[in-house]
Structures are given as structure tokens and as C-alpha cells.
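Sharing a chain and its predicted structure for anyone who wants a worked example. Both blocks are below, sequence first, C-alpha cells second.
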Amino acid sequence: MLTTHLLGFPRIGVDRDLKKGVEAYWKGQSSEEALLALGKELRQRHWNLQRDQGIDLIPVGDFSYYDQILDATAMLGAVPERFDWDGDMVGLATYFKMPRGYNGVKAMEMTKWFNTNYHYLVPEFAPGQTFTLSSTKVLDELAEAKAAGLTPKVVLPGPLTYIHIGKETEPGFDRWTHLDAILTVYEEVVQRLAGECDWVQLDEPILVLDLPEAVRERFAPAYERLKKAAGDARVMVASYFGALRENEDVAAKLPVDALHVDLLADPDALDTLAPKLPASMALSVGVVNGRNIWRVKADASVRLVERAVDALGAERVLVAPTCSLLHVPLDLDRETALDPEVRSWMAFAKQKCAEVRLIADAASGQDVTAAMTENETAHQSRANSPAAHNEAVCARVAGVTDDQLRRATPHAQRKQKQQASLNLPLLPTTTIGSFPQTADIRRTRRQFKKGELGQAEYTAAMQAFIKDAVDRQHELDLDVLVHGEPERNDMVEYFGELLDGFCFTSNGWVQSYGSRCVKPPVIYGDVSRPNPMTVDWITYAQSLTDKPMKGMLTGPVTILCWSFVRDDQPRGETCRQIALGIHDEVQDLEKAGVPIIQIDEAALREGLPLRRGDWDTYLEWATDAFRLTTSGVRDETQIHTHMCYSEFNEILLWIARMDADVISIEASRSNMDLLQAFRDYEYPNDIGPGVYDIHSPRVPSEEEVKRLLSLAQEVIAPERLWVNPDCGLKTRDWPETLDALRHMVAAAKDARAAVAAG
């Protein structure tokens, strides 16, 4: 019988238990002991679930109170100096300072984990930095798993990936000079783990990237040290999210006991990889998609496993998902409100465990006929269902012409007309769109959804929240206002609920970062917009003010990337369907007299393929989708877009191709470093670099905002500069939001006066 294992499992709990526990601890409503006890309870619950679904090797170390890379930072004692760590073991107080900041100290930078919507805390490397084992969390959790009678496999971020995804804090410093010291700590950890378990998994997803030769050359020596430290324990190196390609030789020559590869991303890898593996190395085959919620095509995955067994022998093959199941919801059994037909096409983490077992059993010759037949029936249902296919939508997409992919007039000419119409001051102030989602707002939406409020009552309540947001913005003296988005539960879910081709789970939560969980929509069929989605809310807000009001929309690429997307047609085709729906909304907003329309594409860069050679194909259809949403609007209508947590240097040509009149970006955590790319490229349109970090509860001082604005003006001419926070404010409280925005507006007015004075 083939061995099954997971690379990781969701940790938030089926009812977002971890989110609630962590936030209660942050608010002082719960103790550290209570939070640690909750963590232990969740680990035990999830370990038992995996075992009951047929998983042989249970991952340990994948649980985290915030982020697995932050856990590695704590383990290595790599706490940045500004957090005043005493050098002893890293406790929860120090641990949570790093992602949240405290007492005016900035949090660590956060960015996307490869091309997923999960965020990690970026490791920081400085000259003279020392590393020492400073957290025994993984050792303690291993002891828990053994006491529970499990067969554990410890999971840790690999040391080369940890360094590669980090950043230097001083220009000119090479973070790789710390490799030896970091490996020394890893050796100690692996040695201590090896005495207590049979398997240690080290995740090295950078093996699916375009790596410099210097990084490739470091793999074998590093793993010679780690394998020696492991002694008799077996070491597995895990790659995922893509194909090894030219890194195949590097991976095959590693002195380890097993290699994990994503066979769904590269099914032909067996033909080239298997002959290269030494007889001492096993192959873990990822044959169940760990990043999407669709049922596995069991017959195809069984054939992949059988090919691996034919090439290597059953004793050298392990069966697993493609990557950690962190990226999917926990249990489909709770989704009783879903359409039964659509539900039959899905699998969440619990069900994916059973799929791994099914494939392993089928490839081992076990009698699983009934389960395989049921799987094939579900796939036939999906392929033939009228619910998933709309001929009119497909015909409209096929009829899109090149003229529908561009504005009629260049930006420089549009800007003159927009300024004449809007009459904005230099360095105009605005926000990204959302304001605090208070308990009253959430309760009102919940009551409406449950039928406890009628439509008229709900509309009146939402209008009251909008009026409150507009009044507060008047008090702050912001230049361009927003309606605050009280009616929106989520920037993607809201639109998905109003577009055909989407469905929604009741409890399909996944972790985005820290305690932030999202419930992605599911795109199961062809997408269209049956009715206007935002016009009534925005026009009501505009009626409350003489200042310009922004209409807020989510862009097609972001809706695509932040949803679970159908996998039975190209992603670009689905994206263009969404773009046509957003295009129709833009047209209706303009007809209603809305002067500024923001179409957020926060996920544009995150959707990039991991290999640069694949970028242009993606960026062409992604930017075309954005251009499709904005084509046909008048020159006087100002189009904004927002992007967050992205490195733009290598895709600025494509961002310019989007031709938004104003782009706002996250910039405060990077100290405006991101703007350098816009200067080097001579980006032609207007830019709003974020002047304070909304992901931290700390309120920036007016002087801090002025300093960042000054840095921004060294790169971007004041005539092209907007002033705004990094991102939306829905997760913040009103008091801190108002204080921060007061400081932002005051700093902008001061900078405006300074420019006017020469």
C-alpha cells in the first residue's frame, strides 16, 4: 500500500476559532494560556481528522499563530533589533510585535507567498546579525503529536527559501552571507527533531523559480549538512506551485531521502525526473490540487501515480496534494446551503485528504470501484451542466474587438479635461475606498441576510452609515470622497454575489494573513452582470456632497485571483467574462454622473506566473481585461486603480499599458522605496503612494507622513502626486482611522503650501 502524507493543513479551525482566539488575546480579553490551549486543541482536532481520512504521515509544525515564516524567524532568533527583544526565547508578546508593530515601531513588511493570496512576514537581514535557536515551538508540537499516538512528519520552511524570500535592511549588504549561521541553527533543530521522528520535511518552493546560479549551487552543500544532522531520520525536500524545469538536476542531486514535486503543474516531469533520481531517493507526487476546491480527476491522478510506481517501485513513491492545504477551506460537509449539483463538484481540505487516500489505494490495486465511479459521475455532471455554460456570454467574449481595449484619448489630454472638471488642489487627498466595518454595520448586514430586516429598512440603515462616512470625510477635509463600502462584506465577495456564474460558501474561510480570513467566491460557470451593482449606493453618496465622489469597483483580475476559479477553461477566458461585467457597471456609473471610478487591481502582480518566460502571455490578457472595463468612458471621467504589496519594477511597462489616470500603491512599509521604479521608468500618469500602513493599529504622526511625502516628491513631481493610505480601512477602528487621516490631511496641506511657496 502506498504511503500518503500532507504538506500542511489549514490551522484557523472550521469556525475561524484561531482568528477569534488571537484577536481576543490582542484585545486583552483572553490570556496567553488560553490562546496556547486553543492552539493545542486545534492541532489535536486537525491531526485526528487527517488520520481518520487515511493520511499516514501527519504534518507537524505547519500550525502557526500568525505565519509559518514568522515562526522560522522566531526559531532562528532573527528578530529585528527595533523590537527590543531580550535575546531569550521568543514569547508571544515579542512574536506578535513583529507583524503588528507597537509604540510607534513599524511592523515587518508583509507580502504575498509566491503567487497565492496568502501573506508572509518578510525576513530581515542586517550586517552583524546573529542567529540562535530561540523558539522550541516545533519541538513541543512534535512531542504533542507523539503523545497522541500519531506518525508525525515535521514540516519547516527550508533555509534557502527563507533567505531567498527575505530582504536586506542596508543597501549593498548580501543576505546570503548569513547562510552558514542559519544552517547552524537548522542543523541543531534537525538533529533534535531526528531523535524523535522518522521524517523531516523542508519546504524549498524556490526550486520552481528562475534562480541565479549562485543560489542553485548552494543547495547541495546545505543539504549535505542537514542530512548529516538528521542521522537516521529521513529528510524530504518539498517543491510546489510549479515545475522544476532547469532546477530538476539540482533537486535530483540533493543528498536527501525524498523529493516532493507538483505533478499537476508538470505531469511530464516523471519522464525526465525519475531516471535522474538515485536509488536512495523516494518521490512524493502531488496529484491533488492543494490550491483549488474542485474535485480531483481521480482517473488521471491514478495514472500519474501508476507511472511513478512503474518507474521507481511502490516503496519509493509517496502520494500527496500538490502543496499545503492551507489555501483551501476546511470541510465541505458544513456547506449544506450550496446547490447540491455544484457542491458535488467540490472538495475542501478534509475531502482532499480522502482523495489522496483514494488515489493511493487505486494505484495500489485496492478495490475502490464505487468511489472512482462516483468521482467520474461528478465530473460528467460538471461538463454537461447548463448551470455552468452560457452561450450568449461566450459569444460576447468572442466578439470583443481591439477598439474595445483602449481609451480614445491619451492621458495627458484627459488629465487637462479632468482637472477642469474636478478642480482638485495640488497633492489631492483621498482614501482607497473602505472605512471601518463597525459592529453595527456587520450586524445590519447579518440581519438582512437572515431576513430579519426588510429591503427598505436595510437600505435606510446603509444610507445612514454612508452619510456618517461622508460627514466624517467632510470634517477631515479630504478632497476626493468615498462612500465607505458599508454594504460590502468583502471587495470580491460583494461583486460575486451580484454576478451570474458565482456561488458562495457559508463557511469556506481561508487565511489571508495573521488573523485575517477571507471567504473566496467560487466561479463555477460563465460570468455575466444581470443588473447594476453599485450605482444606487454611489449616487446616494454623491448626493450628500459637492466634492467629487469615487465609485469603487473591484477589477476583473483581482476578482479572478481572489476567487476559486473554474479549471475547465483558460483563466484568461474567465477573466474577460468578468471584465465585460465590470465594463457594464463602469458605463452605468458614468451615466449616473459619477466623476471618478476606481477599479482596484490589487492582485495584478500576484497573478504572475512564477517563471518570467510565462509573464507576457498572462500580462497581455490581464491588462487587456482592465482596459476592457474602462473603454468607452468620456475623457472627463477619471479612472483610478489600486495595487497593494507588489514589486513593480519588472512590470511597469504593463502597468502603464493599463492606462489608469491615477494608480495608488502600498509604499509606506518600504519607506517609499517602491517609487524608485516609477521614476526610473518615467511612469507618465498620476500616482498615489500610500503614506501610512493600515495593516498596523499604530497611528502615524504628522511628521512621519510629511517625511514620507517629502521622499515621494523626490521621485514623483507634485503635479502627479496623490496622498492616500496604503490600502482600505475596513479592518481599522474609527478613532485610529480619524487620527491617522487628520495627520495625513495636515501633512498634505503643509506640503501643498511648501510647493506653492517654491
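Comments welcome. Residues 257 and 280 are 6 Å apart (CA to CA).
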